[in-house]
Specification:
This protein has 3 domains: 172 residues, Rossmann fold (3-Layer(aba) Sandwich), CATH 3.40.50.300; 175 residues, Rossmann fold (3-Layer(aba) Sandwich); 79 residues, K homology (KH) domain (GMP Synthetase, Chain A, domain 3), CATH 3.30.300.20. It is built from 11 helices and 18 strands. About 13% of the residues have low confidence. Strands 1, 2, 3, 4, 5, 6 and 7 form a 7-stranded mixed sheet that branches. A 6-stranded mixed sheet has the order 9-10-8-11-12-13, with helices on both faces. A 3-stranded mixed sheet has the order 16-17-18. Strand 11, helix 7 and strand 12 form a beta-alpha-beta unit. It is elongated and about 85 Å long. It is of the alpha/beta class and 448 residues long.
Length: 448
């Protein structure tokens, strides 16, 4: 997404249909939708094309005052959400102030209106009355004139409406021509269990508070995309919800968030697996790493909160890295970086480490180099024998990248054991630098 386009922020109290409207405009489920107020907490950005014009839509969390009784959302999170929403409103070009027509004007609507009136002269604010799904409900909009934003727009986020098109027509008059360019950015997912510092890392990298950070585990629910350019390199960072164990996923909302995080890994090129240095590698960390492995993504292990490790010596870092890679042996090819998001130590090094992992993810080895290396490996350690039949490798070639994939043509693929496949991978990694990326091996039987 690109914030250079005209921006349109959707604001309002919880459960008026902001995320439903956001998803309708995108024509896909990017924001979590549930009947529970307070589901969306962070700012979500996405680009749409309306009549050949580019518009960046911003979905925000529900604005509430203090403790919200129905969902028991603590003041700490409520205050962080308010900061996010007001920042989105201040930075956007246009605002849709969304209200629920079936509830009438509430005290929360009035308080939000008071806040928005302070910036009314700086930007156009559209008062959209949602949940007007039938013609009979159109008279429900009348009382919303009292909020002081002119004629309300009766809309249905669920099924669409002509009034919604009217709003987009007005916004598009000030938007850029042309279709969006295809991004060549490196897509990076930031994954890990709840409360390990993913959002803190994202905020330091972006230089602004894009994702809500509190000590309460599970604060981030949606996946937050942020695009940034560093020295001519483009990155899209995806801060994902904390991936919990299935036994601890207590609500539909958390289940949606977990599925969204797995999809974010699927769409990324490089996964940053964030681990809490004070807790070490947990079973959940291992399960998350296995998701990254199964999706064949390049990976970097971020050991965060390193500042909290006391009495460190020069050997502590090496010992800790060895311990981490041993416990995460199935992704032990990952690059490792020790960070402190609170003290902002080593955070900017993430860019260079991501670039290194991504370059290996795209690496190609010529057929000549590959077969020369295999001949040397076989000469020192001949292939094993299985049921009296010795494995023979005739030749190999690289057939793909992202990740690198190698096809081995052999006399009998059934004689290839998992142990020998791991041995080959280990030896090829010694000869060619593939740090940070998984490798895929395919064995095909071929008569000589």
């Amino acid at each position: 997404m690109s914030t250079k386009d005209t921006t349109l922020a959707i604001v309002g109290r919880p459960n008026v249909g902001k995320s439903t409207l956001f998803n309708r405009l995108l024509k896909e489920k990017k924001s979590i939708v549930d009947d529970t107020p307070g589901v969306t907490r962070d700012r979500l950005y996405a680009d749409i094309d309306w009549n050949g014009r580019n518009i960046t839509i911003i979905d925000t969390g529900g604005l509430v005052e203090g403790f919200y009784e129905k969902t028991k959302i603590p003041d700490e999170i409520t205050n962080e959400v308010r900061k996010q929403v007001l920042q989105a409103a201040e930075n956007s070009d246009f605002i849709i102030f969304l209200v629920d027509g079936t509830c009438g004007v509430t005290s929360q609507d009035q308080k939000i209106a008071t806040s928005l009136r302070k910036i009314k002269n700086k930007k156009r604010i559209f008062l959209a009355v949602n949940k007007i799904d039938t013609e009979k409900q159109s008279n429900l909009v009348n009382e919303f004139y009292s909020l002081g934003f002119g004629e309300p727009y009766p809309i249905s986020a669920l099924s669409g409406s002509s009034a919604l098109a009217d709003i987009l027509d007005e916004v598009s008059k000030h938007s850029k021509n042309g279709k969006q360019e295809v991004s060549n950015a490196i897509k990076v997912s930031i994954v890990g269990k709840p409360n390990v510092g993913k959002s803190s890392i994202l905020n330091v990298l972006m230089g602004e508070e894009r994702s809500i950070v509190t000590p309460i585990a599970g604060t981030t629910r949606d996946c937050i995309d942020a695009e940034i350019s560093i020295e001519k390199d483009n990155f899209i960072l995806i801060d994902t919800a904390g991936l919990r164990r299935k036994s601890k996923i207590s609500t539909n909302i958390e289940r949606y968030a977990t599925m969204r995080s797995i999809n974010a890994i699927e769409k990324s090129d490089v996964a940053l697996l964030v681990i809490d240095a004070t807790e070490g590698v947990s079973d959940q960390d291992q399960k998350i790493a296995s998701v990254v492995k199964k999706r064949h993504k390049a990976s970097v292990i971020i050991i965060n909160k390193w500042d909290l490790i006391k009495n460190k010596t020069s050997a502590t870092l090496n010992q800790y890295e060895e311990m981490i890679l041993t416990k995460l042996h199935f992704v032990n090819y990952s690059l490792v970086l020790f960070t402190s998001a609170i003290e902002k130590k080593n955070i900017t090094k993430i860019w260079s480490v991501v670039k290194e992992a991504y370059s290996k993810y795209l690496k190609r080895i010529s057929t000549g180099q590959l077969n020369k290396a295999i001949e040397e490996i076989i000469l020192i350690t001949p292939p094993p024998t299985k049921k009296g039949k010795q494995l023979k490798i005739y030749y190999a070639t690289q057939t793909d990248i992202s990740p690198p994939e190698f096809v081995f043509f052999v006399n009998n693929s059934d004689t290839v054991s998992p142990q020998y496949e791991r041995f080959l991978e280990k030896e090829l990694r010694k000869k060619f630098d593939f740090a940070g990326t998984p490798l895929k091996f395919v064995f095909r039987s071929k008569k000589k």
